[in-house]
Write a structure and sequence with these properties.
Elements lengths: L2 H20 L3 E3 L2 E3 L10 E2 L12 E3 L5 E3 L9 E6 L6 H14 L10 E6 L6 H15 L8 E4 L3 H11 L1 E2 L1 E3 L4 E3 L3 E5 L5 E6 L5 H11 L7 H8 L1 E4 L4 E4 L1 H31 L1
Parallel strand pairs: 6-7, 7-8
Antiparallel strand pairs: 1-2, 3-9, 4-5, 6-12, 10-11, 12-13, 14-15
Helix pairs in contact: 5-6
Length: about 280
């Protein structure tokens, strides 16, 4: 057998054993290793459902005006996202995914709900917020939405307080020179209570809509939204809505009773007409 072919087969086999026996290989500045970064244990999402955020926290909006978080909480639910505007990877994908979900239903941001993005990077300022707001407003492409579209920056103290209150755990990776964090967004009630957690980059528009209906305490949405929400219940294991059999049976029983009442009423009216 050709000596080069034997050497190639030996190399491939050796690599297969190395990967299979020791787990996935990872590239680092020092070479190959299979250890996970130490900071991964310090990032993630911890749910604080029902708890309220501090509406007195101070930030700056995209015009440079000092604002309190509570200015954006009144009668509408709020969709909140923590990220940073100059993020080279995850955040831009997360923003674009949200725009896609927002465009998928007919509610315009600012009419039925408010959208707030807060930068986790205290080095960013109003110029960064304005650039991000302009970029994603053009991507959203719904005229008039800018009034319900809020991109904020703040000092490290305010950022960390808000992040802790919503359970958003992140760290600065000095080797990569960027923040390591998970992708999550939150539906909050008009009073500032955490109502629903959205995980990952691909948010189902229907789930997003239902989470806002629930956060509004059924003050927005139509009868179909409320009926669907009645038949669903939040599953903490799956971290999404799941069908609730008991309520489905209640709806089915109610509909069956209505059909029976209509049938009996028509039968009674017909019989009464025959008697006359």
């Amino acid at each position: 057998m050709n000596l080069k072919l034997v050497a190639l087969m030996f190399f491939v086999t050796s690599m297969a054993f190395a990967i299979g026996g020791k787990g996935p290989l990872e590239l680092s500045k020092t070479g190959l290793k299979n250890e996970k970064p130490h900071y991964l244990d310090d990032i993630g999402i911890e749910e604080h459902l029902g708890e309220k955020v501090d509406l007195g926290l101070e930030f700056k909006d995209s015009t440079g005006r000092s604002v309190k978080l509570g200015e954006y909480f009144s009668e509408k639910p709020v969709f909140l996202m923590l990220a940073y505007y100059n993020c080279p990877t995850l955040c831009s994908l997360h923003f674009s995914s949200l725009m896609k979900s927002f465009r998928a239903f007919d509610w315009k941001v600012g009419e039925k709900f408010e959208f707030i993005a807060v930068s986790i990077d205290p080095r960013e300022g109003p110029k960064d917020a304005k650039a991000a707001k302009d970029l994603y407003l053009s991507e959203y492409n719904r005229p008039g939405a800018e009034n319900g579209w809020h991109f904020l920056t703040g000092d490290e103290e305010s950022i960390k307080k808000l992040a802790a209150q919503v359970g958003f755990k992140y760290v600065w990776d000095s080797n990569m020179e960027q923040y390591a964090h998970a992708a999550a967004a939150y539906a909050l009630t008009p009073q500032g209570a955490l109502s629903y957690y959205h995980y990952g980059l691909n948010i189902d528009p229907q789930v997003m809509r239902l989470s806002l209906v629930e956060a509004s305490e059924n003050k927005i949405g139509n009868i179909v939204d409320r009926l669907v929400l009645f038949c669903l219940q939040y599953d903490p294991n799956k971290k999404t809505y799941a069908f609730y059999a008991y309520n489905i049976m209640r709806v089915a029983a109610t509909l069956a009773a209505l059909v029976l009442i209509i049938f009996l009423a028509r039968f009674w009216l017909r019989e009464r007409g025959n008697e006359v």
